[in-house]
Amino acid sequence: MSSAIYAALHILLSILIPTANIPVIVILSKLLKKKRCKSYIFILNLAAADLLVGLMCIMEALDDIFDEDFDKNLFFCLLRLCFTVTPCIGSILTLLLISLDRYLAVKMPLYYIKIMNRKCVGISLAVLWVVSFFVGHMPLIAPSLQHNNYTGICGLFYAAKSDYLYVLCFLIFLPALVTIVCLHMAVGRIAYFHHKRIQRTRAISGLPSNHPAHSSHFKAARTVLIVIVCFTLSWSPYYITGIIQATCTSCKLVDLLKDILFVLGEANSLLNPIIYTFYCRDIRSYLYQHVICRRRKVKPQGLALVQFTNIAGAAIHENSTLAQISGDTGHNNLSILTCNGEYCKGAS
User: In 3-state terms, what secondary structure has residue 114?
Assistant: First the structure.
């Protein structure tokens, strides 16, 4: 595939990722003023990290278009790569924090408020970004991770040694993936036990089992499956191929890593706002009430008085207004205007 195709993909991601994450940031900022929910802070941080990934896709697109102009200097190449890798690490680690937050909320609901206080949340986010910045900028901090013979092609394998990929894979990706899977399996198991307990209690009480809580386990399992599958499919091909390339000197997978597989990993920043926010009931309700309904709502601008001749009669009711107009020629013309709250409908 040519550089123009990868440039088009990066331009598309640079448009779609901010478009999906900016509304999430705005909605969560307003919800945090009304509800002091710690989970919203982590989701807000995830949206901010994904937004940075989308902005860095612009630099990736410029690199694909003007390939020969940006890749001459090793320092500037590593600087661009580090600025791209850092928000990706921040996004992955935020997914880990969200999983841990949900596990604590389900496992220890009585102690959750004491554990996840404002100080703990602030410290965890500060540590997250310090680790992301340090690991993301390791090729610039440690010259031993830089390639000695730089050929002018700006890519992670071209500019940095394979040892750096080992750090990203075995220090960030694999621990985060294993922890997310284990935490979500634990949450699903707890939800399943709650589901069985509710079902047993309703059976003893003689109540029907087709209660909304009956399907809560299956909804939780579905959400967990979507989370794990999307995260795994987005980043696993990149790191698995990278490990193969690092251990196999005769393999030629560098171009595949540089282009399509890294784009696939960046696409996870587009999936995150859909999975972690639009599945949230509060955010979904806020989006519907303040964005969708506001476009459909018709606000009355004033009171229009229309005078007709030969008015047969009028009747005023308590909750609605009915005006019936009849002509002298024998042909009836009926106009009904019903107002209820903020919505008005007209029919004739």
Answer: helix
DSSP state of 319: S
Angle between the N-to-C axes of helices 216-247 and 174-205, in degrees from 0 to 180, rounded to the nearest 10: 160
pLDDT at 130: 96
Q: Are 165 and 85 in contact (CB under 8 A)?
A: no
pLDDT digits (tens, 9 = 90+) for 211-258: 555 455 556 556 666 877 888 899 888 888 888 888 887 777 777 776
The answer to whether the CB of 196 falls within 8 A of the CB of 226 is: no
With the C-alpha atoms ordered 120, 126, 129, 130, is the resulting torsion angle positive or negative? negative
Cα–Cα distance for residue pair 261/91, rounded to 1 Å = 17
Task: Select from 244, 90, 269, 84 the least CA-distant residue to 159.
Answer: 84
Specify whether the CB–CB gap between 116 and 38 falls below 8 A. Answer: yes
* CA nearest to 101, candidates 49, 46, 33: 46
For residue 322, the cross-strand partners are: 315
Read off φ and ψ for residue 28, nearest 5 degrees. -65, -35
pLDDT recorded at residue 45: 93
Pick the closest to residue 186 from 196, 175, 178, 174 (CA basis): 178
Give 36-79 pLDDT, tens digit per residue. 677 789 989 999 999 999 998 888 887 777 765 566 788 888 88
CA distance 141 to 209: 60
Dihedral sign from CA coordinates of 80, 82, 83, 87:
positive
> What confidence score (pLDDT) does residue 147 get?
85
Answer whether 16's CB lies under 8 Å from 273's CB.
no
Half-sphere exposure of 313 (CA within 13 A, CB side): 2
Contact 97, 42 (CB under 8 A): yes
Distance, CA of 15 to CA of 312 (rounded, Å): 60
